[in-house]
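CHAIN AND CONFORMATION:

***
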Amino acid sequence: MRTAFGLRFDVPGGYLNTASIGVPSTGTVEAVTAAVATWGAGGARPTDFDADTDAGRELFGRLVGVPADRVAVGATVSQLVGIIAADLPDGARVLVAEDEFTSVTFPFAAQADRGVQVEEVPLEAIPEKAADHDLVAVSVVQSADGRLVDLEALREAVRDRPTRVLLDTTQAAGWLPMRLDWADHVVGTGYKWLLAPRGSSWLAQHPDAPAPRASHANWYAGGGMDSIYGLPLKQAPGGRGLDLSPVWLAQVGAAAAMRELAALDLEQVRAHCTGLADRVRAELGLAPAGSPIVAVPGDDAARRLADAGIACAARAGKARLAFHLYNTDTDVDLVLRALRG
């Protein structure tokens, strides 16, 4: 059992795989366990989950700097990006980063039969190329190696331009302080750095961006129980009108996890996480990067780390380590011994 930032985690030493799946606090585990017990005893009602769903909406907005009334609830990032991709005009030009996570790129690539064109450029070239496209879709932090897009340069590049911007915060929200209320679309999922169950994701839509067609319109997006039967179509105002019917237990866990994260000083969390990662970089002769994700070169790095009992991932030919708030210098020492051994 580890205690970090006042929270308790039943996480083993050497767990450095948060970029794949985060480990919940004991408080989040208890909240989900209690909800499962109530459900298992026949005590759950659909409306019982509304408070947690609304709390998750508000808390995600707070963590990415977006007003809660813009935020829609979903289950996966690709599902939410797909709403935006399906609503692009025929022939639209989309800019993405090379080797971007495919939940960001595939929904746009799937529109090729309508003439939608997707261009890949190096991450560093995104701001420079942005104004030549109708939409830029990019992760704030790259999944494979933890590189950060230059948000200020991107914002400046599209200022007073018709180019829209979609940002994926999946590898950023939970450790990186952000204010993304300027972006047209902000998506993110809960099961990595937000330490929530899989099945909780969100989309924040800027009020000045074109409102996408709610091709997945459903009773929940209509505003609740008064829209469960019959026509005409009902759509709640703001982000609620793009909701998917929530994954109930995932929303319970997301609300519990994000309440804890939102109460922390994220500047301190960022300093902790990136400090551990940059210590590994320094020992390996790599430059500091200000990211909690470290891509360790070497054909056998992932094997050596796994043999030492370190939980990590193999990505793009490198071993990917991810340091979150529950990691310590002890984990860094384990990594360095494994790689030097």
In short: The first strand starts at residue 2 and ends at 4. The mean pLDDT is 96.
